[in-house]
Design goal:
The chain is of the alpha/beta class and 381 residues long. The protein has helices spanning 26-40, 50-54, 58-68, 78-87, 104-110, 119-132, 153-159, 186-200, 352-359, 363-368, and strands at residues 3-5, 20-25, 44-45, 47-48, 72-75, 92-95, 113-116, 138-143, 151-152, 170-174, 206-208, 225-226, 249-261, 266-267, 273-274, 279-284, 306-309, 312-317, 325-328, 342-346, 375-379.
């Protein structure tokens, strides 16, 4: 289990007990929420804090955003909803994975709202709330083209007359964009138009379509409420353009040893990297168990990851192992790097998106794998 504390500044006194340090800037998360709020120009900005707030701490992030004025949160399941409710007493909490009759009492207990993803779920929800006489509300998820969860648009139209009834129970109408990070994809406009049509039949119900990238598509995607997730945590919601969000995380590890490697010798498991010159290698206490993607391993055939050491970006060489990375510091002046110095793999100009690109994945996956055993330092709490 990761160690965590709320302190500013550099590595705390007991950080050497762990290999890596993950710094999470809660102030930057709040700043990103405010940037998104301004971009929405009047629509409400909610916060998606599922998957432990994308790996960065559900309780800490939820408390920070609630304190900043966020009134609506989205989580994946009831376990997350329960954790969040313990910190956030007044906000609306929507559970994306929906409703089952077995979970019904928990929704009442913690005043959470299910996202209804099918007509069957809706029937079960209606029967439950009628029996319990509860008026907590629920979201109706309409599928406009993702073809994942959600009520088909034609079924939603058949359900629309219920909103004319008192206490109809639908507090949110929502859908999900499939290709918002690619503005030119025609599915975006198709989904927006279809959701507009469905929304007309649910007058008076708050409507939500935009995710992080959807906020930057155009105003037509905003509706009444947006649901950003990754952008809050520093992932670029506008790929190919400058990132409008502030960086949130920094991942670094201590250098355990500096060793000389002769030309022609290999480094690490599988001997996948061979020194083409006499080299100096810094071995740092970070690995894939700390969330560093193994796909960033350095070889002659692929594009390796990088680490910031002594003011310079240096390539990761050899395979990233569970606990260790090897960094080629040959181009640094001899004597500049010492045992106990810090190597930074996210931060110091290396972004989460940089890591994702080099690993052939996305920033979302990188974030959610970070720091399970790192020393965690929260800034701006």
């Amino acid at each position: 289990m990761a160690l965590a504390e709320k302190v500013p500044g550099s590595i705390a006194s007991f950080a050497p007990e762990t290999g890596g340090t993950l710094r999470i800037d809660l102030g930057a998360i709040e700043a990103n929420w405010r940037i998104l709020t301004r971009t929405l120009r009047g629509a409400e900005c909610a916060a998606v804090v599922k998957a432990n707030a994308y790996g960065l701490g559900l309780e800490q992030v939820g408390s920070k955003l609630a304190g900043a004025g966020c009134k609506t949160f989205f989580v994946a399941d009831l376990t997350e909803a329960r954790r969040l409710r313990a910190r956030v007493r007044e906000a609306a909490i929507y559970v994306l994975n929906g409703f089952t009759t077995e979970t019904g009492p928990a929704f009442i207990e913690i005043a959470a709202r299910p996202v209804i993803n099918s007509a069957t779920e809706l029937a079960e929800w209606d029967a439950f709330v009628a029996q319990r006489k509860w008026r907590g509300g629920a979201a109706l998820h309409v599928d406009t083209g993702m073809n994942r969860l959600g009520v088909p648009a034609d079924e939603a139209a058949a359900l629309a007359p219920r909103v004319q009834k008192e206490n109809h129970g639908i507090t949110l109408l929502m859908s999900h964009l499939a290709c918002a990070e690619t503005p030119s994809n025609p599915l975006n406009s198709t989904q927006i138009r279809l959701f507009q049509q469905v929304r007309l039949q649910f007058r008076g119900v708050t409507a939500s379509l935009a995710n992080s990238s959807g906020i930057f598509l155009n105003d037509a995607a905003h509706f009444d409420l947006a649901r950003p997730g990754a952008a809050l945590y520093g992932v670029n919601p506008t790929p190919g353009r400058p990132n409008p969000m502030q960086s949130v995380v920094e991942l670094s590890g201590r250098i355990l040893q500096i060793r000389n490697v002769d030309r022609g010798k290999t480094v690490g498991y599988g001997a996948s990297w061979t020194a083409t010159r006499a080299s100096r290698i810094a071995v740092a206490a970070l690995g894939y168990a700390d969330g560093l993607p193994r796909a960033m391993s350095g070889s002659e055939k692929g594009r390796s990851g990088i680490a910031h050491v002594a003011g310079k970006k240096c390539p990761i060489v050899g395979r990233i192992s569970m606990d260790l990375i090897c960094i080629d510091i040959t181009d640094l002046l001899d004597g500049v790097v010492h045992r106990g110095d810090i190597a930074t793999v996210i931060g110091e100009g290396i972004t989460v998106d940089d890591v994702a690109t080099r690993a052939g994945t996305i920033g979302y996956e990188v974030l959610t794998h970070l720091g399970p055993r790192c020393h965690i330092v929260y800034r701006g709490a």
